[in-house]
Amino acid sequence: MTNHLQAATTLNNGVNMPWFGLGVFKVEEGSELVQAVKSAIKHGYRSIDTAAIYGNETGVGQGIREALAENGIAREDLFVTSKVWNADLGYESTLAAYEASLNKLGLEYLDLYLIHWPVRGKYKEAWRALETLYKEGRVKAIGVSNFQVHHLEDLMKDAQIKPVVNQVEFHPLLSQLELRRFTKEQGIQLEAWSPLMQGQLLDNPVLQEIANHHGKSVAQIILRWDLQHGVVTIPKSTKEHRIIENAAIFDFELNQAEVARIDDLNKDQRVGPDPDNFDF
């Protein structure tokens, strides 16, 4: 039972990763971003997720450094993730991209580095670079994002190190059942991006009914559903009150019937690109 904000799952390499964190997709550089990161850490979040393509690693790093200093928290108590973008998916270019992300973040290492998308013909060389970074102790854990079952099977044919995480679009309209089964069998932790379907689920009557029953928001119901399925989740918000509200999901539990009703909403519907048709 995931019962507090700093609860963590143990990845297949023994590293602990918080079940819950802050995502910063589409949050532009600037004071709003810095303050969001600081607010999250102040209110108990210990995981921050960014990516090179988001263009906001500098602000994320500033927010992290200021929050650590102001709250007396050690860097080792945070779990920071970034991702290598498609244009850099080669061996040397991935190594260079990692250095660029570290420099922008102002950090000495990342806790998790991911291949952002499974670009055909490129992700294996990028993975080889991630394996090098991991073996050299430059990063605590390595994984992928947006990989489907066949991508994972192909990658693992030649990989020396198994991915620890697969971060994918996951929400009640895209419940990724086959992928969840496969990653569980392989000991790969599934992580949800866009868990709230970019706000498109907030008026769903089934979710509203369950939310009313628990005295919670629809967003809180969805995020609790994620955790009860064993999926790490990183909702995005820049508003302090929403950052606090999103994390207030550890004082209740959905029953089996409620989980099943939410599961039944699945339509295999995406808000993001199809990983089989997104190379750039």
From TrEMBL:
The entry lists its GO molecular-function terms as: oxidoreductase activity
Checking Gene3D superfamilies in the record gives: NADP-dependent oxidoreductase domain
Q: Give the record's keywords alphabetically.
A: Oxidoreductase
Q: Which InterPro entries match?
A: AKR (IPR020471), AKR5G (IPR044500), Aldo/ket_reductase_CS (IPR018170), NAD(P)_OxRdtase_dom_sf (IPR036812), NADP_OxRdtase_dom (IPR023210)
Q: Which Pfam families match?
A: Aldo_ket_red (PF00248)
The family database entries (PROSITE patterns) matched by this protein are listed as:
ALDOKETO_REDUCTASE_1 (PS00798), ALDOKETO_REDUCTASE_2 (PS00062), ALDOKETO_REDUCTASE_3 (PS00063)
Give the record's family classification.
Belongs to the aldo/keto reductase family.
Q: PANTHER family annotated for this entry?
A: 2,5-DIKETO-D-GLUCONIC ACID REDUCTASE
Q: What protein name is recorded for this chain? A: Putative oxidoreductase YtbE
Record the organism.
Answer: Paenibacillus baekrokdamisoli
